[in-house]
Write a structure and sequence with these properties.
1860 residues; alpha+beta; 7-stranded antiparallel beta sheet; 57 helices
């Protein structure tokens, strides 16, 4: 029973405090005056009576009533019912004393009314009831009664009424009905709710929804649950109270535990700024004051709005619950909505009554909570049962099982105070239960089933609403209230007596009486109906298979199970194949659970000893399993693994065991204290359950055996049973149980302290975890990431560590772990009620536990380092070149995929070849990775990636995660300018110092101190005598080296040179292969008695100089000069008169220009001493010399460095004089001019220069790319001169036509009508201000060129584009964009453009001097391209070599400097000038495939090896330096000693003799054709050298290393495999070498021919001879045909001449060769010319084969025959095809086979005769079915199925022969 009301208070206006503006209230009287013991009087009631402040009003207002709520210090709520009415304020003059309430004198009333001043004021007065019960209606009636008695003057004592009111007691719950009367003839019925845990809402919830609408209320609901601040505004106090009450009712079963003030008085408005959440109501007149609240959700009840500020984010309910709740609410609130669209809506649709609607809405929310919290009881941990149940909720598990870990709303709710209260209140297993408990236990399945069925949902809602309604109104209201109401309008009576003062004594006496009576009455004990709380179905059962919980197919789980059983059965190979699939499956939760269950099965007695490989597999699975777990471990994976990590172990050595935990520490979950708490509570619960189960089993053993075995009881069930029995137990028994539980918890705490130290202490404790920023290491040096700042920083108290360890290195790790464990122990032990002594004991133990564990770990760490990495694949050794030595043995690494997708599977598809696991080797020549892909599906393949050390351009450290299940490791990214990228991650077994050593070695090898340190010199330090024919050793013996060094040291640099023995040209084999044998007749021999007048104008030659001369002459360029007719060396003086040029030896000692060759071509008329002076005007003394002459126009091409400033001034800046006289310029510029004039004079048609030299073929197509250089503007027949200026100026970006030199108007008629005889192409920036002079014969063309810096930058970008370091988001776009940004193609465009310009000029008879930069970069590129385009000789193998030797090597392109080959060049970096030249050649080659004797592979080969330092050819910067090192000429003795290729040319020659790899089969040159390639960027292609790669064997340019027999293929890469089989093969574009696996037709035929010759025992012919014969025979047939000679095997005769580049391409790989060359008909005939038949037929077959797609198309007759193989081979059945058109008999393996196995040319058939069976012939066949075919080469034996068929074949073949 409880008092209905605790206090009655009368509150009035306090006139004394009036001055302050706002008035105040004061308590006039209160009853009882003493506080109740159990319920003190609440303070501050007067504030709440007038929440908007005490004020006087000018008129009487009607009485008001509302209920305010006060919360006391014990968070008990007090309901203050305030009834307020207004009284007139007494006027200032003294009044007669206060009237008594009972008196009633009419006269006085009239008298008073006459005194009323017009401005009378009225003050409020309140009657207040304070109660702990919320019976608003009863309070309203009771206070109303008191007011009525007072206002209507009823004859009832107010004291009695108030006394009765205060002594009235009612039952709290249980649904009793009580009638009360206050003794004024009134009667009220009070109904108490059946169950007081359910809130009472009457209509408030429905009203709230009416005021705000569904969405707004849901917002408020979510805001309240997620602890936001909520403020209600309304101008009605009662509505504020109702709204607040409604919101709380909606939150049931959670209870709101923060500030709750439904009506906040004005004086307390600052409460709104409190930081804690609240629900507060405020009168809307204070709306303006709430504007500046930034984080408060404001609900305006009158306006129906909810305003959520920007900074507040309210998490809403998770879908689909939100949607379902909305729908259900709309069904309840707006039933018409459903039928609004119906044509015939039912007439009787209407919402329930307000009270019912209220309950229906609450039913919706009740269902919502049941769905939100379903299964919550399965996540409760009961950690103590006695004396008091202690219960914890496992939040992470709950979220995980519900699949809502990501859900903001639920997470916040579970973390909130309300839920904590819910767990405390409802967690108890034994207590009374209410509607919610039943709903969540029994109805969840039903709700799941009814989802989506609106009728059923509505029915359920109505059922629940009924129950709620019944709870509030247990009895239908039969008895009516009877309470007197005041008469209408009584408050307006003019003369109203004030409320009387009550007599305290009377009231107090009534109260005392009642209390005395209560004490004597027996206490009404209402037995609470306690029972066990039902748990309901577990979550997994509820969630069914909605994909959320079980997103894994059974197949995946099967894989996981199989893999684990393989591991434990030791079938490692099988396990390895399944392993990647298992790791992928681990993404799914079910697979992770499956893994933990499977592993549990393999643990016996808490221990499972594994071997190393098994251990490794288990660890990797565990790590993979854990890496997707969050720190919360919501799926309990880490929890399930925790016992396993201490169970699985391996023996490292006797007495030392390594457990799994030491390898799985790298996961955040271990550092999360909540995880440990949950785990701890879970274990404690299990142990406590066991504790009671055991005791129960001992007692009930006998009975149980008879019954059926029951299901295992859950801990909560056991707990509820125990709690039921608790009161019945004796005190001792209770103490014993408490004791047992406490010690259980304590022992678990010790156990967990151990476990935590296992998982938190890193294996290598010396690595200080706190200082390691990454917190991540590799498995061996595992360091834990757990010390996040929060832990390291927030552990303020450091526990005493007197227990004795202060090891310097480990103490910090140890301390942090000790602190972490101490915090944990403190928290869990206080929560679970461990005694203080035990807790102290624990704190003493923990440091010891940690220290002991550190000591065991040290031993384990030591041993684990010694472990051989058994389970890893064997390291594969790379094959090395002869003389290449390993500098560093293989370090185990992973080769990671870079941005190129092909290797990783990527866009191409196919299994990923990368990442691959293997080792990286460092040799003297290369960096090599060799290994196998980690993907077991391609595990048999070998992956090789390597590049020469010399080509390394960038090396940077990176850290990468090598495998999904492993930690981040350190790695290196090495990039090479041969377009290879090694992105490697070191395996954990590689110590970081060995990685450092690797880097140091690499650096030392990459940048040797001196060029002698490069591989080309250091290779194999001792000479090898036995040489294989193909090997290419280059090992100068130490002796030779030292000899040369000594010699060089003796000479002073620059003057004298190494004296050699007399030079005699050696035999061709040992020679440095300077020329082919055929050239020997035009070899230059220097006569011994050199005439001094010819060669040395200055002095006689010393013998040593003569020696040098001999060598110099032998240089290649000299032969070339002779070929070009530019001069010969001979002693006769006669020819000097008529030859315009001579070979000058002025630079033979390299005195004038170090970077020029010893012999130079200069004009005949110029003396050597003049040259010396001229050279000073040019940069690097590189004065103009002739390097090529056009044999037709006799125009010459000269090259020089750029001019120095003074030279330019002297030569060109002649302002006024037409010819500069000696007065205006110094002598050198005169001599320079003379020099240029001499060049011009050498040209035979110099005199009529204006004549026919027009820019004939130079069309806009070549030059005017629609790019940066505009187009040729001049139109019409402008003079050639104008056109030329135009070209120069266009290249320079200026239009020189506008202003003429002499000021004349720029019209063609005024321009010089002839074109200059010499054009000087110079750098625009150098020639600023140069004025062309009309009277001189030379013309300056200023152009803008890019410098080396730009080339470097461009090349870097090109490398990044072609070999990106990491995969980009959109490969296709990124590649093309970065290619464009690199501007590489624009540079190539520019070079080609200038070259074509020069070619044009030379072709039209003007000489050109190219004088750019220092004359050794772009000049060299342009000059060599010009010669290549103009002179077909340079397009042969021999000529190209000569071109490179002459223009690049002799003329001093600085290879070592540009290639950064030594330490000195390191800073300048790699500049690919030569590579750019080769790329240009490649572009021209693509456009003119028939003009080049060499193939694309040849260009790639040079590109690779000019930077590889394998050969000496491209070392050093000039001939001078090479001579100095003794590189250019070797002594005979040395040459004979070793057959070594030090020169790349020798090597190419040797290879070319062996195989046609460098040869271009399309080669069919036109005589003297000048090539003019298109240079527009749209015509240029990216060279595949930059992009292709072959992972099966590394770069294909080191011939010996390529695998398989060295039968070379043509293009683009290397040799073929042996004769192809008919089986289909898969060719991976980035793995296999396509040209080898699938060679082109010709290579294949040549190879077959070679094999045949070997088979027949002949000496194989050289492929070149065979090829030449075939070509020759082709030509002769062509002549007999009467057509013109076909220029090539491949060309039909009708191709137009204008641009033969559009001819047929032979595809690089023969995969689908469009040409089937006619060679198949010739191959057999070539070797025996005697068998030639008259040849017209074969030529037609050639033409035919051009247009025939494949040989199998035309079949005159076909069938199956047995054929006897060659000598000693068996009979085989083959499918034969007789082809009349091609005149051949072909055979195939089978009818379906497309690949022809052999061809018998009918032209060679001599006779066909019946045959006889030989050994091994098919047995069943008739003898007459055999026949023989005799050809000029051999006899073929055939056998048909039967006699008729044989006859048919014979007839067919005969008829073919006679047709022919």
């Amino acid at each position: 029973m409880a008092r209905l009301a605790d206090y009655f208070v009368l509150v009035g206006y306090d006139p004394g405090k009036r001055g302050s503006g706002d008035g105040q209230g004061q308590i006039l009287q209160r009853f009882p005056e003493k506080d109740w013991e159990d319920n003190p009087f609440p303070q501050g009631i007067e504030l709440f009576c007038q929440p908007s402040g005490w004020q006087l009003f000018p008129e009487r207002n009607p009485p008001t009533f509302f209920v305010a709520v006060l919360t006391d210090i014990n968070s008990e709520r007090h309901y203050c019912a305030c009834f307020t009415f207004w009284e007139a304020v007494e006027s200032p003059q003294p009044q007669s004393q206060a009237r008594n309430g009972e008196e009633k004198e009419e006269e006085e009333e009239e008298e008073a009314s006459s005194l009323v001043q017009p401005a009378q004021l009225f003050a409020p007065k309140s009657l207040v009831l304070v109660s702990r019960l919320d019976h608003a209606e009863v309070f309203r009636n009771s206070l109303g009664l008191i007011y009525t008695i007072y206002v209507d003057g009823l004859s009832v004592s107010l004291e009695n009424v108030i006394g009765n009111l205060l002594t009235c007691t009612i039952p709290i719950t249980g649904g009793a009905q009580r009638t009360i009367s206050l003794g004024a003839g009134d009667r009220q019925v009070i109904q108490t709710p059946i169950n007081d845990s359910l809130p009472v809402s009457s209509c408030s919830v429905a009203l709230l929804f009416r005021q705000l609408g569904i969405t707004n209320v849901l917002f408020l609901f979510c805001a309240a649950l997620t602890e936001h601040k909520i403020l209600f505004l309304s101008s009605s106090y009662q509505r504020l109270t109702d709204a607040c009450r409604a919101l709380l009712a909606l939150m049931f079963p959670l209870k709101y535990s923060f500030t709750y003030v439904p009506i906040l008085p004005a004086q307390l408005l600052e409460v709104l700024s409190t930081p804690t959440p609240f629900i507060i109501g405020v009168h809307s007149i204070f709306q303006s004051e709430t504007q500046e609240l930034l984080d408060v959700v404001i609900a305006d009840l009158d306006g129906g709005t909810v305003n959520v500020p920007e900074c507040v984010h309210i998490s809403l309910l998770p879908e689909p619950l939100l949607q379902q709740t909305r729908e259900a609410l709309s069904m309840v609130l707006d039933p018409e909505l459903e039928v609004a669209d119906l044509a015939f809506p039912p007439s009787t649709i209407s919402a329930s009554s307000l009270k019912m609607q209220d309950k229906e809405i609450r039913a919706v929310f009740l269902r919502l909570f049941a769905q939100l919290l379903q299964g919550y009881r399965w996540c409760l941990h009961i950690i103590r049962i006695h004396p008091e149940p202690v219960i914890r909720f496992h939040k992470a598990a709950f979220l995980g099982q519900r699949g809502l870990t990501e859900d903001d709303f639920l997470t916040k709710v579970l973390e909130g105070m309300a839920f904590a209260g819910f767990v405390t209140e409802r967690g108890a297993p034994y207590r009374p239960i209410d509607l919610f408990d039943e709903l969540v236990a029994y109805e969840v399945k039903r709700m799941k089933a009814e989802e989506g069925n609106k009728q059923k949902i509505l029915r359920h809602i109505k059922e629940l609403a009924e129950k709620l309604y019944k709870n509030e109104n247990p009895y239908p209201a039969v008895t009516m209230h009877k309470v007197q109401k005041p008469t209408e309008g009584c408050h307006l009576r003019l003369h109203q007596k004030p409320f009387p003062r009550l007599d305290e004594g009377t009231v107090q006496w009534i109260i005392d009486q009642a209390t005395a009576k209560l004490q004597t009455a027996p206490p009404a004990v209402r037995a609470e109906k306690k029972c066990m709380v039902p748990s309901g179905p577990p979550i997994a059962a509820i969630l069914e298979r909605n994909g959320n919980a079980l997103a894994n197919s059974a197949r995946r789980l099967e894989v996981v199970r199989n893999c684990i059983s393989y591991v434990f059965e030791n079938k490692m190979l099988e396990a390895k194949k399944l392993f990647p699939a298992v790791l992928r499956a681990m993404k799914g939760r079910a697979a992770r659970h499956c893994l933990t269950q499977e592993l549990h099965l393999h643990v016996q007695q808490n221990r499972a000893v594994l071997d190393h490989q098994q251990f490794d597999f288990v660890i990797r699975m565990m790590n993979c399993c854990l890496q997707d777990c969050t720190a919360m471990d919501e799926h309990g994976i880490a929890a399930a693994l925790l016992p396993l990590v201490t169970a699985f172990c391996r023996k490292l050595s006797p007495g030392i065991t390594q457990f799994a935990y030491s390898c799985v520490q790298e996961h955040v979950v271990w550092t999360n204290i909540q995880f440990w708490e949950a785990m701890f509570y879970c274990d404690v619960q299990n142990h406590i359950r066991a504790l009671y189960l055991d005791s129960a089993e001992e007692n009930h053993m006998e009975q149980e055996s008879a019954e059926e075995p029951q299901e295992a009881k859950s801990a909560l069930e056991i707990a509820s049973e125990q709690l039921r029995l608790w009161p019945t137990m004796s005190r001792e028994k209770q103490q014993e149980l408490i004791q047992k539980e406490e010690s259980t918890v304590f022992s678990q705490a010790i156990h967990y302290a151990n476990r935590m130290s296992y998982l938190l202490l890193p294996l290598d404790t010396s690595k200080n975890r706190l200082l390691r920023s990454s917190g991540l290491g590799d498995v061996e040096s595992v360091s834990n990431s757990f010390v996040t700042n929060s832990i390291a920083g927030s552990v303020a108290e450091s526990y005493d560590t007197e227990s004795g360890f202060e090891d310097a290195e480990s103490s910090d790790v140890a301390n942090s772990v000790v602190r972490f464990i101490n915090r944990f122990v403190d928290k869990v032990c206080t929560e679970s009620g461990v005694t203080n002594e035990h807790l102290k004991g624990l704190h003493v133990m923990i440091p010891d536990i940690v220290q002991m564990h550190i000591e065991t770990l040290d031993a384990v760490h030591r041993e684990s380092k010694r472990l051989p990495p058994i389970q890893k694949p064997k390291l594969l050794r790379p094959t090395l070149l002869l003389g290449e030595e390993c500098v560093m043995e293989g370090l185990r690494v992973y080769l990671m995929p870079d941005g190129r997708e092909e290797g990783a599977g990527g866009s191409v598809g196919g299994p990923p070849l990368l990442p691959a696991e293997g080792a990286v080797f460092l040799t003297t020549y290369r960096i090599i990775f060799k290994g196998t892909p980690t993907d077991p599906l391609v595990g048999e393949q070998v992956v090789i990636r390597s590049f020469p050390i010399a080509s390394l351009t960038k090396e940077k450290k990176i850290s990468i995660q090598a495998q999904a299940d492993q930690f981040i490791q350190e790695g290196l990214q090495l990039r090479s300018c041969t377009f290879q990228l090694l992105k490697i991650a070191f395996d954990e077994e590689v110590a970081s110092d060995s990685a450092e050593i690797f880097r140091k070695h690499l650096h030392k090898l990459r940048y040797p101190q001196h060029v002698r340190g490069t591989f080309a010199f250091t290779v194999g330090q001792s000479p090898k005598q036995a040489m294989q024919p193909k090997a290419k050793e280059k090992n100068p013996s130490l002796r030779t080296l030292s000899k040369n060094l000594v010699k060089n040291a003796k000479r002073t640099i620059g003057r004298q040179y190494v004296t050699r023995k007399k030079y005699t040209p050696p035999a061709w084999e040992q020679r440095g292969s300077q020329h082919f044998p055929e050239d020997n007749e035009d070899e230059i021999s220097v006569s011994e008695e050199l005439d001094r007048s010819t060669l040395t104008p200055s002095s006689t030659m010393r013998p040593s100089e003569k020696m040098t001369m001999t060598h110099v002459v032998e240089r290649a360029c000299c032969r070339d000069y002779q070929r070009l007719g530019l001069g010969t060396l001979s002693s006769s003086l006669t020819r000097s008169k008529n030859e315009p040029f001579r070979i000058s030896t002025v630079n033979r000692m390299y005195a004038i220009c170090r970077s020029y060759p010893g012999l130079l071509i200069v004009p005949q008329s110029i003396q050597d001493n003049t040259i010396q002076r001229i050279s000073r005007c040019y940069r690097q003394s590189r004065f103009p010399v002739v390097c090529w002459r056009n044999s037709r126009t006799k125009a010459v091409l000269l090259r020089s460095g750029g001019l120095h400033g003074k030279g330019v001034v002297g030569l060109f800046k002649s302002q006024n004089a037409p010819t500069p006289g000696p007065s205006q310029a110094d002598s050198t510029s005169l001599e320079q001019e003379k020099y240029l004039q001499a060049v011009i004079n050498s040209m035979p048609h110099y005199s009529d220069a204006g004549g026919r030299n027009t820019l004939s073929g130079f069309t806009s197509a070549h030059m005017s790319s629609a790019g940066k250089w505009g187009s040729i503007r001049a139109s019409g027949r402008i003079s050639s001169y104008a056109l030329n200026v135009e070209i120069g100026s266009r290249l320079a970006g200026k239009d020189l036509l506008g202003t003429q030199h002499n000021g004349t108007p720029a019209e063609p008629s005024f321009l010089r009508q002839h074109r200059a005889s010499l054009y000087i192409i110079g750098d625009k920036s150098q020639l600023k201000g140069v004025k062309p002079d009309p009277l001189q014969h030379w013309e300056v063309v200023p152009i803008e060129v890019f410098d080396v810096r730009q080339v470097k930058a461009s090349f870097k970008k090109l490398m990044k584009a072609c070999v990106p370091g990491c995969p980009s988001s959109d490969p296709s776009v990124a590649y093309l964009r970065s290619l464009e940004e690199s501007e590489w193609l624009s540079q190539i465009h520019k070079i080609l453009q200038i070259s074509v310009l020069v070619v044009e000029l030379l072709d039209t008879g003007s000489s050109v001097l190219v004088s750019l930069e220092d004359g050794w970069d772009i000049t060299t590129q342009v000059v060599s391209l010009v010669q290549l385009l103009s002179d077909p000789y340079y397009r042969t193998l021999e000529g190209f070599r000569l071109l490179v030797e002459k223009e690049w090597l002799s003329f001093g392109h600085r290879f070592s400097h540009r290639g950064a080959q030594t330490l000195a060049g390191q800073s300048s970096g790699f500049a690919p000038i030569f590579l750019q030249f080769l790329d240009c050649v490649h572009q021209i080659h693509l456009q003119f495939p028939m003009e080049f004797e060499f193939s694309q592979y040849y260009l790639k080969f040079l590109s690779y090896h000019y930077i590889s330092n394998r050969f000496r050819t491209f070392l050093l910067d000039s001939d001078y330096e090479r001579i100095e090192l003794g590189l250019l000429y070797e002594e005979k003795g040395e040459r004979k000693g070793q057959q070594v290729s030090k020169s790349i040319w020798d090597y190419i020659d040797r290879l070319n003799k062996k195989a046609p790899i460098f040869f271009n089969y399309l080669y069919a040159p036109e005589d003297g054709e000048v090539l003019r390639p298109y240079s527009n960027i749209s015509n240029l292609k990216v060279w595949d050298y930059y992009t292709e790669e072959t992972l099966s064997e590394g770069p294909p340019y080191d011939w010996e290393l390529a695998q398989g027999p060295p039968e070379p293929a043509e293009e683009p890469e290397r040799q073929d495999t042996a004769a192809p089989q008919s089986k289909r093969r898969i060719i991976w574009p980035c793995y296999d070498n396509r040209s080898r696996v699938e060679p082109d037709a010709i290579s294949k035929l040549l190879e077959e021919l070679h094999n045949l010759e070997m088979e027949l025992g002949q000496v194989p012919e050289r492929w070149k001879d065979t090829w030449d014969k075939v070509k020759a025979s082709q030509r002769t047939e062509g002549r007999q045909d009467g057509s013109r000679t076909p220029s090539s095997l491949l060309m039909s005769s009708g191709l137009s001449h204008h641009r033969r580049s559009l001819g047929v391409y032979l595809q690089e790989s023969g995969v689908g060769s469009t040409l089937n060359l006619s060679l198949d008909s010739d191959t057999s005939s070539t070797s025996t010319p005697s068998s030639r038949k008259p040849g017209g037929r074969r030529s037609t077959s050639t033409l035919y084969s051009q247009f025939q797609m494949s040989e199998s198309e035309n079949r005159s007759y076909e069938g199956s025959l047995y054929k006897k193989g060659a000598f000693m081979k068996p009979w085989k059945s083959r499918w034969f095809v007789l082809d009349k058109t091609k005149h051949q008999l072909r055979y195939y393996d089978s009818r379906m086979d497309t690949e022809c196995k052999g061809v018998i040319d009918l032209a060679e058939v001599e006779s066909i005769t019946p045959g006889t069976p030989t050994m091994g012939a098919p047995k069943t066949v008739d003898e007459k079915a055999f026949f023989d075919l005799k050809t000029t080469k051999r006899v073929y034996n055939f056998c048909a199925q039967d006699v008729q068929l044989a006859q048919q074949w014979i007839d067919r073949i005969q008829s073919c022969l006679s047709d022919a």
